[in-house]
């Protein structure tokens, strides 16, 4: 029987792991772009390629994790990913060779996938093994905390340290955060669950996952279009010129407690009601950018966006984890891969439309249509849940 203190330590260690592997290993690059451009004359081509190879690493990791079922191997890769997040971040400041940066950012993407997907799956297995609520809202609050940490730390160090020193500082911050992770992470190898059996066939579970995959792809479009162009829209406004990082900070601040609040909402109103609401709110945040680009509207849009996108991530991945309790990382990785494909395609399309038309209006309207389609797929998954063996997904 685990105590409340034991559970709290495991949850804190899991959240900090997300902060390290996602917040620092991935999000630190965003505030570092202008520092590297000013410090070493980094071209926009290299800026874009570094972002691309990082996400390629993340998608590669998601694909590989979807094929792993051995719990011992998962634990070893999870630990390796934590160490990799520290090393690949700090080493960015020790070279000016572009090809080495590409390798480091690719490896950093692999680390992010282990922290997000293996971390979520291992925590889900631990919660199920100890008869705890299989909710991942607290876990995914680490994404919002990571955004906040990198935004605040960037503002603190950018005037005092050179670009290469700043990378090392990010790495040292990640190293310090490893201490409670190593101390409080349980032995996940003892949490392996038996393969689910019953009247529901594997084909029904696979069909349910596929439908959710389509819905999650749509959510990926909604997430990345705002994430990519929100700051650009803000910076184009005289009242927010030079303060785009503050808009992103608002999104992070909203995302941090939102995960826990979505868990509270699902307990009262049901998982599906909460998921419908999250999709609608995400669409509303996009619509606000179309209708009004005033200071108040952009800030409110950022707030709603941060609270809604993280809710979709935490609820959808928790859903598929419950359907596959014997190996939750596998369906989580499948969905994340489709989410990632959306993040590759959508910015290119919206960016092309913006260049051709001189504004983001049609690109944002296209994104709204995709989010509406996402709601349709959520409804289809809702209807199919009983066949998939997911009676716990109420509402």
Automatic annotation (TrEMBL):
Superkingdom to which the source organism belongs: Bacteria
The UniProt entry, under Pfam families, shows:
MFS_4
- Give yes or no: UniProt keyword Transferase: no
Keywords from the named record: Membrane, Transmembrane, Transmembrane helix
Q: Is Flavoprotein set as a keyword in this record? A: no
| MF GO annotations | transmembrane transporter activity
Q: Any stretches that span the bilayer, and where are they?
A: 12-29, 41-65, 77-94, 100-124, 136-154, 166-185, 206-233, 245-262, 274-291, 303-324, 336-354, 360-381
Q: What is this protein called?
A: MFS transporter
Q: Which organism is it from?
A: Marinobacter profundi
């Amino acid at each position: 029987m685990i105590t409340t203190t034991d559970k709290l330590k495991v949850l804190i260690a899991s959240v900090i792991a997300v902060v390290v592997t996602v917040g620092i290993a991935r999000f630190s690059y965003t505030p570092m772009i202008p520092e590297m451009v000013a410090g070493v004359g980094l071209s926009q081509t290299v800026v874009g390629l570094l972002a691309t190879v990082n996400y390629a690493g993340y998608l590669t990791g998601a694909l590989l994790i979807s094929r792993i079922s051995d719990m011992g191997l998962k634990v070893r890769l999870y630990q390796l990913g934590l160490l990799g997040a520290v090393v690949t971040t700090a080493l960015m400041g020790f070279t000016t060779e572009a090809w080495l940066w590409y390798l480091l950012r690719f490896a950093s993407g692999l680390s992010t996938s282990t922290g997000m997907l293996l971390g979520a799956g291992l925590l889900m297995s631990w919660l199920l093994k100890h008869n705890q609520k299989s909710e991942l809202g607290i876990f995914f609050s680490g994404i919002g905390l990571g955004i906040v940490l990198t935004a605040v730390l960037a503002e603190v160090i950018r005037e005092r340290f050179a670009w290469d020193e700043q990378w090392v500082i990010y790495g040292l911050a990640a190293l310090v955060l490893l201490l409670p992770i190593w101390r409080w992470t349980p032995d996940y190898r003892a949490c392996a669950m038996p393969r689910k059996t019953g009247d529901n066939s594997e084909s029904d579970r696979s069909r349910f996952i596929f439908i959710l995959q389509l819905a999650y792809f749509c959510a990926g479009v909604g997430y990345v279009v705002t994430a990519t162009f929100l700051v650009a829209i803000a910076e184009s406004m005289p009242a927010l010129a030079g303060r785009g990082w503050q808009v992103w900070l608002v999104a992070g601040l909203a995302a941090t407690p939102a995960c826990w609040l979505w868990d509270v909402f699902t307990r009262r109103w049901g998982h599906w009601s909460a998921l419908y609401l999250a999709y609608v709110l995400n669409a509303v945040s996009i619509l606000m950018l179309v209708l009004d680009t005033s200071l108040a509207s952009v800030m409110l849009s950022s707030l709603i966006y941060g609270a809604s996108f993280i809710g979709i991530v935490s609820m959808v991945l928790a859903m598929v984890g419950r359907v596959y309790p014997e190996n939750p990382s596998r369906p989580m990785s499948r969905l994340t891969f489709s989410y990632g494909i959306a993040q590759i395609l959508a910015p290119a399309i919206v960016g092309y439309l913006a260049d051709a038309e001189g504004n983001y209006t049609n690109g944002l309207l296209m994104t709204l249509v995709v989010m509406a389609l996402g709601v349709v797929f959520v409804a289809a998954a809702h209807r199919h849940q009983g066949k998939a063996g997911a009676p716990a997904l109420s509402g």
